[in-house]
Amino acid sequence: MGSILREVLSQRNILVISLTTSFWSIINMLYMPYWSLYLQELGASLEAVGLLNMIQASSWLIFQLPGGFLADRVGRKKVIVYFTLTNILSPICFLWARTWEQIIPGILLGALSSVYMPAFNAMISESIPYERRGAGFGAYRMITSIPWTFSAFLGGVVMDRLGVTYGVRLFLKLTIVATVVITLIRALFLQETLRPRKKKEDMELPQLGREEGGALSVFKRAPKAIYLMLLTASISSFGMRLIMPYIVIYAVREVGLTKTQWGLISMTTGLISTLLAIPGGVVSDRIGRKAVILIGRTLSPISFLGLSLSRNFMQIFLVQMISAIGTGFGGGVYGGMGGPAWQALVADLVPSRMRARIMGLMGTITGLSSLPSPILGGYLYDDYSPQVAFLVAFALGIIGATIFAIFVKEPKKREV
């Protein structure tokens, strides 16, 4: 493991991205595990919490496609630096908000930062040797995750002692300072990874150049496995987002956990998933991506089933440990970026010149397909029961895992 970490950190871009992402995550995770509780403090109902999650997801999606296009045209670094700075806008708006409706402008402005996500993912994959992608993504995930695992617990202590509203606003102020620092570091030290097209290639392949201008035309030429991964991710994401905004509400309001207890659970699950990231990546390099991804795709919905049966702190703790193991080895349970094996498989399938646009389009379509999910989850939770929402999420997750297991094939030759 030590040699893998040294190899990954010897890449300048990975070192810079790892340090800045770690710094951002430390601050962000002080309050994000309690964000749904904060929205309720501002007067939001469960349906309103779902609506805000849908607005956030949809506004992020607006910028995914142009983000991939920009990254493949003007380069990864410019997109990352300029749109990292836009992260400063949303916490300013959130500090101003005194009702849940006033949170919406901050959500919309915060979505600007999503423009850099395709560039971010592409730069990481291009800074890691292709034969070590699984281990490399795992090492990156471990490096960036260990620092924030303790933030959730510290944030819970602060919330219990100072209150959710005061605690969240305190950490939002820290987020503004962190954004300025991170932007400066990325501007000074990141190096461009997009290789310019050779002049000879432009002369010989003018038609190809015109075809590559649009993300949709690029997506049409993607391997079949990309379409199947997209279907898997869309179904699984719908199930996951159905309940994710409400897990902390269920744990605190229904089961009776304190914020400190929830922070302890978040910290422990974060540590477990982080420590498994490199082993999961190494295994995916050696035996293939598919088996490792399936572990995450299966354990994650099983944890949703477990939540429906949980009635005390220890039961929720054990169920979240199952989820953490799946996340450590995981497929798409990391959200838009995917887990180490998932990201490595996408990079294996897609050539570098198309990678950012494909990643951006996959993120857009996956997000669009799950836009109604948080609202539906709030409806099921409030009008029926939390257990119904968890069971629906479980069923969708298993369907997604089954599709992946049966139909997705790994490439015989990995793209560089």
What is the fold's blueprint, element by element?
Blueprint: H1 2-9, H2 12-28, H3 35-41, H4 46-62, H5 64-74, H6 76-85, H7 89-96, H8 104-110, H9 117-126, H10 133-162, H11 164-189, H12 199-204, H13 206-211, H14 215-220, H15 224-243, H16 247-255, H17 259-275, H18 277-287, H19 289-309, H20 313-329, H21 340-349, H22 352-369, H23 373-384, H24 386-407
Helix pairs in contact: 1-10, 2-10, 2-11, 4-8, 4-22, 4-23, 5-6, 5-9, 5-22, 6-9, 6-11, 7-8, 7-11, 9-22, 10-11, 10-17, 10-18, 10-21, 15-22, 15-23, 15-24, 17-20, 18-19, 19-20, 19-21, 19-24, 23-24
Describe what you observe in this structure.
By secondary structure, the protein is mainly α. The protein has a single domain, classed as Growth Hormone, Chain: A (Up-down Bundle), CATH 1.20.1250.20. The protein is 78% helix and 0% strand. The protein is built from 24 helices and no strands.
Question: What is the CATH topology assignment?
Answer: Growth Hormone, Chain: A
Question: How confident overall, as mean pLDDT?
Answer: 84
**Major β-sheet, in short?**
none
Helix content: over 70%
End-to-end separation in angstroms reads 23 Å
List the total number of helices.
24
Q: How much of the polypeptide forms β-strand, as a percent range?
A: under 5%
- The CATH class name reads Mainly Alpha
SSE class: mainly alpha
Uncertain regions: pLDDT < 50 for 5+ in a row?
200-213, 332-337
Number of domains: 1
What order do the helices and strands follow? Answer: HHHHHHHHHHHHHHHHHHHHHHHH
Query: What is the tally of beta strands?
Result: 0
